[in-house]
Amino acid sequence: MTAHQHQHHHGHGHGHGPAADFDWDALAAHLEHEADLRADAVTEAARWLTGLYGDGTVRRVLDVGSGPGVIAALLADAFPAAEVVAVDQSAALLERARTRSGGRLGTQQADLPAEFDKLGEADLIWSGNAIHHLGDQQAALASLAGVLRPGGLLAVAERGLPPRYLPRDFGLGRPGFQARLDAAHEDGFSTMRAELPGSTEEIEDWPAMLDRAGLVPSGTRTFLVDRPAPLDRPTREYLHTQLGRLHDRLADALQPEDRTTLEALLAEDAPTGILHRPDAFYLSAMTVHTARKP
Description:
Elements (H helix, E strand, L loop, with lengths): L23 H14 L1 H15 L6 E5 L5 H9 L4 E6 L2 H10 L5 E4 L12 E7 L8 H11 E10 L3 E4 L12 H18 L11 H7 L3 E12 L5 H18 L5 H11 L15 E11 L2
Parallel strand pairs: 1-2, 1-4, 2-3, 4-5
Antiparallel strand pairs: 5-8, 6-8, 7-8
């Protein structure tokens, strides 16, 4: 993928060229938590894809921007006869994918967009929250379309709805905290996109973009990620890490009151912290756009 370490609302983000002391193990654990949270939604999406594919044989599946391979393993469950390959820039994350899957997954290291030609042909390509890390999203879709075999499917999971994990008024600061965090995040996301190599402004109408890539749109569906309160410890730890990353990136963009609220949520020993609150939940939505190669 591209050179930054951007953690966002709708999935993972990681880049090449990290500092020598960058903690890939910590990132991998966080990405695994995130993918595990979405596992039921991804499994449901994969079942939908098997239906869209119909009776055709799926021989090779690519997960482009796979991270540590959690979703690739779910695709391997859905398409047991296929060779499933996790594709990522990070050798450390691909090693994690191999270890997690007991060698069941293939891996392919590729620095995109320069190395789309390394991917080889596929009958099904899944790309979750990876295209938006590439400067020219339309060109990336065209490159993925070029890798598909005739009749093959491209499934792009992008945007959806940002997570909610607290009530509108949860007793700290001014109500509506998460909406203001979203607004700061969206500004930061736009800045991130603008700074990517080859950044190209695009109206993010994914079915229209897939059509322009020479594919035939075959449906869009949204899948719910729903963990009601009270949350289990791993989900709380995921949220604590996520809030810490948001603090690192957005603290300067927040009003002082919201910065104080964020710091209170990060307090590890306080009952007001996200690790302990009885009212914390996790609710999000993952949207998957599909298209077929004629």
